[in-house]
Specification:
Layout lengths: L1 H24 L2 E4 L2 E9 L7 E7 L5 H20 L4 E3 L10 E2 L2 E8 L2
Antiparallel strand pairs: 1-2, 2-3, 3-6, 4-6, 5-6
Amino acid sequence: MKRLILPLVAGLGLAACGNVVETFTSKSVTFDGVSFRGKAAAANKADRRDFVATVGPASRSMVGAREAVQYQGTRYCILNFGVSDIAWEISPEAEELPMENDRIVLKGRCLE
């Protein structure tokens, strides 16, 4: 009986890990009921702590787009530096946000 249960439990555990990895590496996230495609990348190769985060389409939900761009920045900092603290040039919660082709574009820096 143990020979049957142990592989079953191990298989279920690995399946759960796959869902976590897939969620964290997906290019699409859902906020406010809307799916947003986004990314964050180094703004400067000399200092990768500086990054640019973009998400869209912002016109579908500004509330969701604000959360999605903040998520992309946080994800970038965690994956690259293991930190979630960010100094944003313009806060994702600012009234006016920089837009480019229906996408929010924000710059930030991962803090130590």
